[in-house]
Design goal:
Blueprint lengths: L2 H40 L12 H24 L14 H8 L7 H4 L5 H9 L3 H47 L85
Helix pairs in contact: 1-2, 1-6, 2-6
């Protein structure tokens, strides 16, 4: 493989990995936003001071903070890295020109240092084959630094995301109510019947009172009944005579004999 072909392959390889790093950051950011929305719907962000000792609530709050941190780290991955290319510290003429401020021909911010398009074209046309290859390899060194910075934040974001998922699982396990052992419905108790109100008795009017000075009414004597005599021993109690059948008169008892 020729040196110029290696330079082009390395340059394309570094550009592709920058795209991969930003794709990973997009996945982390999407997962973090979705998890935060889920925690908000579950009420985990409504932390109550009265439940400060509940492990499930603390796990939910820490999970929300971890997801937010993972999203911020993912944002740092896609944050643009701008700046003028600097040399590696060697003492050759090309590095000295870079450190002195001589712009390159690949990075857009360095291209715009030329006042006109003709000035940029003139500068590129003066490059030899070895100079063009050097421009490409030096820009690959810049892309390697961008990859190094992006993948450092991708690594931090993924580790934070894993920890946030572990806290979320802890929150769901400790906060959710465990299902009951029996699935049979609980017996329903009929409400007690209300007692019917008893009717109130009608008020009894008081007896009429005689006017003042009037004589008291005379009491009627009760009819006196003859005292009942108890039967003596050895005497049979006479039975009542049977009633005659309808249409017949009762026979008259014989008269008692008169004494002489």
């Amino acid at each position: 493989m020729a040196v110029d072909e290696l330079a082009r392959h390395t340059h394309q390889y570094l550009r592709d990995y920058i795209t991969h790093a930003e794709g990973k950051a997009g996945v982390v950011a999407t997962a973090s936003v979705g998890a935060l929305a889920f925690l908000e719907a579950k009420g985990a962000l409504e932390f109550s001071v009265m439940r400060w000792g509940h492990v499930g609530d603390w796990a939910g709050l820490l999970a929300a903070i971890a997801f937010a941190a993972a999203g911020m780290l993912a944002l740092a991955v896609v944050w643009p890295r701008l700046g003028v290319r600097k040399g590696s510290g060697s003492k050759d003429d090309q590095t000295t020109k870079r450190m002195a401020g001589d712009p390159g021909v690949i990075f857009w911010d360095e291209i715009r240092t030329d006042a006109t398009p003709d000035a940029y074209a003139t500068r590129v046309s003066k490059l030899s084959s070895e100079g063009a290859q050097r421009e490409l390899t030096e820009h690959s060194w810049v892309l390697a630094g961008i990859n190094q910075s992006k993948y450092r934040f991708v690594n931090y974001a993924l580790r934070t995301l894993v920890g946030a998922v572990a806290l979320l699982c802890t929150h769901l396990f400790l906060r959710e109510d465990k299902p009951a052992a029996s699935t049979s419905p609980a017996p329903t108790v009929a409400p007690a019947a209300m007692p019917m109100p008893m009717p109130m008795p009608a008020p009894v009017p008081p007896p009429p009172t005689a006017p003042a000075g009037a004589p008291a009414p005379a009491r009627t004597p009760a009819a006196s009944s003859p005292p009942a005599t108890a039967p003596t021993a050895g005497t049979a109690t006479p039975l009542p005579s049977p009633l005659p059948p309808p249409g017949k008169s009762q026979p008259t008892p014989p008269a008692a004999p008169q004494p002489p």
